[in-house]
Design brief:
Blueprint: H1 6-9, H2 12-26, H3 28-31, E1 35-37, H4 39-45, E2 51-57, E3 80-86, E4 88-96, H5 99-103, H6 108-137, E5 145-147, H7 160-167, E6 179-182, H8 184-192, E7 197-200, E8 207-211, E9 214-218, E10 224-225, E11 228-234, E12 239-243, E13 250-255, E14 260-273, E15 276-278, H9 290-293, E16 299-301, E17 310-315
Parallel strand pairs: 1-12, 5-17, 6-9
Antiparallel strand pairs: 2-3, 4-14, 6-11, 7-8, 8-9, 10-11, 11-17, 12-14, 13-14, 15-16
Length: 318
């Protein structure tokens, strides 16, 4: 009997779109609305080039004028600027003996795709947290950071009062912040204080934790520095995602002598904090690593603070 090989069950033209779809379904950040996709970002991700320019019009400014029959209005100007995203090019290969045979008791395409999709969902979350570290380390984002760790006693601790102070960094736009990413230790602290409310999803299939009406994402990738915890507050679509097309997104191979099957998956995508441009000031290769994404030298805010739907809250725990 001939064993089933990965190449027998993987159809690249079907597999790659399915992995992208399943990655989105498995992403807690997309489920919370923090990451949004649209056809324009997908188009930009396939338009070519490492850096993607996204021009935009600045808001109108200046005082209105009193109308007069003896004078004319003074024309104002509209100005433009550009946000810049970077194309992220990533890949991973797996080699396992008789992988397809082990998985073929079920739907092998779905089984393999789910394993790969879950991997990419986790890796994109790691990438996003690296971006956040770099973005909030940049001086242009200082107005969006509340660091209370230098205070004493309860003033240095995550509480309802200090959380509201973090929300207030966006002023009258604080209602744009709808989700919170925090370390599990922060989440546990809030649970001990019985401050977490679990709400049922619209489809009634799962429960999601909330705090002050904000949806929570628990991730131990959120920064911790000797007892100082960073919690991130987000608005809907704070990050834009565009799925591009690697030249060879998916391929399989086999080393017959070793009895080894190989599955290679490559992805080109944009994962961009809206309103904070990538400067590419410190990138060594063709695409930035996570270590380069968390470098503040590579980021500069271009939107006004209220329109960058993100806040960093640095605190201690009770």
């Amino acid at each position: 009997m001939t064993a089933t090989k990965i190449a027998d069950v993987i159809v690249p033209e079907v597999f790659n779109p399915y992995v992208i779809q399943r990655t989105a379904e498995l992403s807690a950040l997309q489920a919370a609305g923090i990451i949004s996709t649209n056809p324009e970002l997908d188009r930009l991700a396939t338009a070519g080039g490492k850096l993607i320019n996204m021009p935009y019009w600045e808001d109108l400014t200046g005082d209105d004028e009193v109308l007069s029959d003896s004078g004319s209005l003074t024309p104002g100007a509209i100005t433009s600027d550009k946000d810049i995203a970077v194309l992220l090019m990533r890949g991973r290969a797996w080699g396992v003996n008789d992988l397809a045979k082990a998985l073929s008791g079920d739907d092998p395409m779905r089984a393999i795709a789910d394993l790969v999709a879950a991997y990419w969902a986790r890796r994109r979350q790691v990438t996003l947290l690296a971006i956040l570290k770099g973005v909030f380390a940049d001086s242009t984002m200082a107005d969006s950071v509340l660091d209370i760790t230098g205070e004493s006693g309860d003033d240095a601790v995550f509480s309802g009062s200090t959380f509201l102070d973090a929300l207030s960094l966006l002023g009258d736009s604080e209602n744009k912040l709808t989700a919170v990413a925090m370390h599990s230790a922060t989440f546990t602290s809030l649970r001990k204080q019985q401050l977490i409310v679990n709400l049922r999803e619209a489809d009634a299939s799962t429960m999601v934790p909330t705090y002050m009406g904000k949806r929570l994402i628990i991730d131990d990738g959120c920064p911790v520095d000797t007892g100082d915890y960073t919690t991130y507050l987000f608005g809907p679509g704070a990050f834009g995602l565009g799925n591009g097309a690697a030249p060879v997104p998916t391929e399989t191979d086999r080393d017959s002598l070793a009895g080894e099957d190989y599955l290679i998956n490559r992805q080109h995508f944009l994962l961009h904090p809206r309103g904070v441009k990538f400067t590419s000031s410190s990138v060594a290769g063709s695409s930035p690593t996570n270590g380069e994404l968390d470098d503040d030298a590579n980021w500069t805010r271009v939107y006004e603070t209220k329109n960058v739907r993100m806040v960093a809250f640095v605190h201690k725990l009770a």
